[in-house]
Amino acid sequence: MIQNLNFNKYYKLFNIISVVLVILSLISILFKGLNYGVDFKGGTLIELRINDNQTTISNLRSAFNNMNLGDVAIKNFGNDNDYLIKFVKKDRDKNLIQNIKKDLQSSIGPVFEFRRVESVGPKVSAELLNKGLIAIAASLGAMLFYIWIRFEWQFSLGAIIALFHDVILTIGIFSLFNIEINLSIVAALLTIVGYSMNDTVVIFDRVRENLKKHISIKIFELTNISINETLSRTIITSATTLLALLSIFVFGGEILKGFSLAMILGVIFGTYSSIYIANPTLVYLKVSYKTVVKEEK
Amino acid sequence: MLKFSKINILITTLLSIIVIFFTISNFTEFEDEFVNKKINLGLDLQGGSYLLLKIDNDPVIIKELQNKAISLKNVLKENNISVLNIRVTDDKKILLSINKKDADKLNQLFNDKNGIVNPYFDQFKSFQFEIANQEGNFEIFFSKYGLIQLKTSSLDQAIEIVRRRVDEVGTNEPNILKRGNDRILVELPGLDDPMRIKNLLGKTANLSFRFVTQTNEETFGSEELEFEDGSEVANVSKRIIVSGENLIDAQPRMDNQTNETVVTFDFDRVGAKRFGRATTKGIGKRLAIVLDGKVISAPVIQEAIVAGSGQISGDFTFQSATDLALLLRSGALPAPLEIIEERTVGPGLGQDSIKSGLSALLIGFILVITFMLIKYRVFGIIANATLILNLFFLVGILTLFEATLTLPGIAGIILTVGMAVDANVLIFERIKEEIKNEKNQIIAFDAGYNKSRNAVLDANITTLIAAIILFFLGSGPIKGFAVTLGIGIFTTLFSVYFIARLFTSIYVIRNKNKEQLI
User: B-chain residues within 8 Å CB-CB of A94?
Assistant: First the structure.
């Protein structure tokens, strides 16, 4: 299979699209905000299973609204009998869960089961958020450091811009569609950082090799050659990774949905950005044979 | 070249057998401790409770300052410094006013490294307290290390009491750990309703026996305390006759005469003596039994109790009597604990998570190997055989270390399946390129392996960096993801360079004259 696709013809077009998407993401993140889960916002989450067919979501709503818990969000979770109930209650009562169980029993009967309870205090949630941000910053920093010792600065810049692009777009989509951000999303973001870097570095390795091999070819052409040479690897690896992730998304249960969705988005963005963000950066920075050879002495 | 030494092959085969053995050991029982290893299931998979407790040290600090204020008063008296005023403020300081002329003397007293007023910690080069002078008024407060030392000792005490209480309840292999300098993590596998434990840990269990007084003329002062059941308010002396510290045992009992549930207790020698003396002198008085600032009961003393044992009655159910006895046996916490994070997963959800996690793994695995088979044929078989061995290595190592597998951890294994083939793909694609220019297939294969090495290492190191950061900054289930992802990288590299390469070389050497090997 010999490919010769002109990726470089569309560098400008896709760069413009990416810039627009990043700006839209940032606008959404700044103005619409993020839908933080209890991990980061604090409060209580209850996963409830109803074991009869009479109880409806409106029964549940009225039952919970009578409990004086403040704003209670109730939604279906996975199937018709499972519900996710979330609320933030300011004063912390250590018998809270027990009282809710009692109240619920008297209003809808003993037809339910608490499958999961998560309760996070305001101090802990603030710490978890902080830790999450530090983790993302640290991973970006570590990648920057790694690529800085492995490659020349022009390559590092390209890879880092691609990384930011992927992370911002993924968070942007979560913001736009109001998908919950919790601890597992942070794990997904970190893995995306790793994956995006991995994908970029493989093409960069080839660009570097080709710079030494084809001294007379301009970087604009050279990136295209390198992308094409590594294209089947790029496609196969993203395909197998996506197959694994789709399997988690479809069969892995409700708890892993957000995580696998973030990863799927990240793999798609990561693959795209290696080609259309990282490589054009090398072109704009006028990388040449000299860039690579000079640094090696 | 594509040659392997015999030792190399032997070691690889041996390692493979070991990891396959340990993978299988998860599903069987062995007599021997060493080989009978299993992966631990995280709380999210086996069900259970995770509680994070925070010690509220403020009462301890205030109490320490009060003690300090009293001893300070005595020391100042001995040194002929007259105290105009001394009190402990709410913002955790002792306010002390003395005559201005004594200021130097006081400073000297406080900054004496060998003195007893203000202990000096050699290892931290710091005093326990700091002193600030504001024109004859002194503020005395804990120094940074004084505070750390206090918190550490209160955490050590608290964790001991928490352990005793949890052990007494008899849950299955609880895990109790320090977190930072004022937190305790309690993991209770298999417990789907932590209500009772939460109740037990939520009580300080400060027990004291004190007289109920009518007058306010007590030298120690008195305070109004409510009864536990809210039925009355009693004026209770602040003088403690005996406290919970002197208890050596407490048990729930049925009182045969009244048919009531009571808690019986035994004092140690000191406690028995004090209790005996007080009850001898105080016949006819009411003796309040106070727990955490509330009166449980206040019976009238009928006769002197000198045997060192007694019983508490107070409208108990058998359960509440059992819990009170347990609290009294395990001792008082140095400070109240607050539950700041709680995560409980019921056994039903845990089971469902295992099921969905494993089916996702199986389906993802089948999808990936089918894809590879279609794409690479013979080399697909090699890549897939490698992938299977890679999974054995991953699960085998997790078992060997008895690591904790969580739901995100299973996701990490699935992701490893998807990404592990990358290394083989990089190599195979490189070999294809090399074959175009190189007639000798063996040389082409060798060049493919060598020239792709940088890319393979780079690609894996970047993922490893992410996994390491996640391991150190992630918590609970997320750590499980970092562990499987991180170990997955090592097993992938090993299986690609030692196993896949061996298979490849055997195949290539046997078929070196065939056209279009890959």
Answer: 198-199, 202, 339
